[in-house]
Write a structure and sequence with these properties.
This protein has about 250 residues and is an alpha/beta fold. It has 7 helices and 11 strands. The chain has an 8-stranded mixed sheet. A hairpin with a 2-residue loop joins strand 1 and strand 2. Helix 1 (about 15-35) crosses helix 2. The longest helix is centred in the first third of the chain and has 18 residues, at about 15-35. Bound molecules: 2-phosphoglycolic acid. The site of 2-phosphoglycolic acid has 7 residues, from loops.
């Protein structure tokens, strides 16, 4: 593992994706052992899958105990049924929650089915729930093709909090295969804001594979800039960008 500081952002390169995933999972496991009711900020997509797989293994083989852990996910699509397998709610169940002893009552995602009139109230309640849990101890992040983090698409302001957003054309295009066609991809989502993410005590942004290399390069290069929301992590005092060799620019 090689690590270098880019301002306050630590850039960590591992020889392989598996090694990077193990290192992030180990950090989460150490956090949970030290603070059994840790508050984890979780992400969906291809990027965090191996970290979740490793956490499941640590639970199964080493008894890593999630019984008091609280979780808050970054985002959710609007308009999908609760049991829609393409919802992030179902995805989290399949990838992690069903395989560890987390209490489902302690897991939180924005509710994409909330009625139009209740969206603002729901988003404010999500922020309050994070706050009353004591804030997020460690937030996982991926980087979207357009630099988004969560569903904070280009243009997102530094001070944004949980809210409903319109999804960017590239975000929808990248989800088209999973939805069986672009026309089936929701047009909106509910996401934590940049301000919500930066309020986490630690931020761990992951990127694997050659297609992420230009995104990583831009994140390292860009001054914090709304046109590239991933660049906002440079403003965080304890942020790491963890990559494998292929994603290193
Ligand atoms: P991916 O998505 O992990 O599926 O590449 C990243 C993101 O959109 O945050």
């Amino acid at each position: 593992m090689r690590s270098a500081a880019h301002g306050s952002l630590v850039f960590e390169t591992h020889a392989t994706r598996a090694e990077a995933e193990r290192s992030v999972a180990e950090e989460i496991a150490a956090l949970v052992r030290a603070k059994p009711d840790a508050v984890l900020g979780l992400a969906t997509g291809d990027t965090p899958t191996g970290v979740y797989r490793e956490l499941v293994r640590l639970h199964r083989d080493s008894g890593l105990d999630f019984s008091s852990v609280r979780t808050f996910n970054l985002d959710e699509y609007c308009g999908l049924a609760a049991d829609d397998p393409r919802s992030f709610t179902c995805w989290m169940q399949t990838q992690l929650f069903a395989h560890v002893n987390v209490d489902r009552a302690n897991t939180h995602l924005p509710d994409g089915r909330v009625a139009e009139a209740d969206v603002v109230r729901h988003a404010a309640a999500y922020e309050r729930a994070i706050e009353s849990a004591g804030g997020i101890d460690l937030q996982l992040l991926g980087i979207g093709r357009n630099g988004h983090i969560g569903f904070n698409e280009p243009g997102a302001d530094l001070h944004t909090r949980t809210r409903r957003v319109e999804l960017h054309a590239w975000t929808r295009a990248d989800a088209a295969a999973a939805f069986g066609g672009l026309e089936h991809v929701p047009t909106r989502g509910i996401t934590m804001g940049i301000g919500t993410i930066l309020a986490a005590r630690r931020v761990r942004m992951l990127a694997f594979g050659v297609r992420k290399a230009p995104l990583v390069a831009r994140t390292l290069r860009a001054a914090p800039d709304p046109a590239w929301p991933a660049s906002y992590v440079r403003l965080h005092a304890d942020a790491r960008l963890v990559v494998d060799r292929d994603a290193a620019p």
